[in-house]
Amino acid sequence: MTQKLKIKEIQCKSAIGKCGFPGGGFAINPYVGCAHACRYCYGRFIKRFTGHQEPWGSFVDVRMNAAEVLEKQMKSPKFRGQQIYIGTVTDPYQPLETKYKLTRQILEVLINYDNPVVIMTKSALVLRDLDLLKKLKSPEVCFTIATLDENWRKLSEPGSVSVKARLGAAKKLVSYGIKVEAMMGPFWPYFTDPEKLLPEFKKAGIAKVHTESLNTIGGNFTGVEMVLKQNYPKLLPEFKKIFFQPGEFYKFYDTAKQQIELLSKKYLIPTTIHFGRGHAR
Q1: Which of 155, 170, 139, 140 shows the shortest CA–CA distance to 232?
Q2: Closest by alpha carbon to 228, among 240, 219, 216?
Q3: DSSP track, 208-255
Q4: pLDDT band at 1 (very low <50, low <70, confident <90, very high)
Q5: What pTM was computed for the model?
């Protein structure tokens, strides 16, 4: 059953902050919450800081003044030349972006600076802003594409667009000279097939592939468990064994790592692998 989306227009005091990724940099999130409602999303941890009690995927706060605040903040020398990620705990091109255009407004600010910018999304809507992406000094788009199984995609990422649409958007961006990478994660047992995904990435012109195991911290497995229980009950014990028994986890992901490394060489696509039990980004 689809939940009604609760939308709230808010004002923010800061539009950019430190990024928690291993390489550092800064993050911009135009929205609080995400209508894609991915069952595995680690971004749900923000509920602890925003006061939201609603289920993840059922609320989105629209940071109406984000671009205006960003314009002021970018004048600080501490941001000069720094890597900026857009969409670390929300999708900047989720459906509401069609109406609010916050991400577009943010890009209009950033084209005046020399920062390398990485946009993280599951949406083909990024193509709308191709004109602005071409004006950025060093733009990059990273699509999450962890499966070619559309049924699993619909169940685990119910508000997202099809994998076919993402691959098509990637190919078009590449044709215009925009660097595109792919996040092949979470790397799912049964549903992530690198032997099928890597050839598709090659055809789309994807320059690099990242992959990671499921972040099971903070209740992220709860939604996955519910989906499996309702739709793939026979797979649930196997998922639990892989994710929560150390020996089984390392056995599964060591094999996956070897497979990915071989395919990376075969298709000449560099790959970074981050497999870790219960990891937190």
Answers
A1: 155
A2: 240
A3: EEEEE----GGGHHHHHHHHHHHH-TTTHHHHHHHHH-HHHHHHHHHH
A4: very low
A5: 0.94
Sequence-distant (≥ 6) Cβ neighbours of residue 279 within 8 angstroms? 212, 213, 215, 217
Alpha-carbon span 229 to 51, nearest angstrom: 29
Which residues lie across from 84 on neighbouring strands? 26, 117
For every residue of 75-89, DSSP letters joined together read TSGGGTT--EEE-SS
Strands (E), the chain: 6-10, 17-18, 26-28, 31-32, 59-63, 84-86, 116-121, 138-144, 179-183, 208-212, 271-274
Do the bridges between strand 84-86 and strand 26-28 make them parallel or antiparallel, or are there none, so unpaired? parallel
Q: Give the confidence band of 46 by pLDDT, cuts at 50, 70, 90.
A: confident
Largest CA distance in the chain: 55
Confidence of residue 276 (pLDDT cuts 50, 70, 90): confident
pLDDT at 47 over 80: no
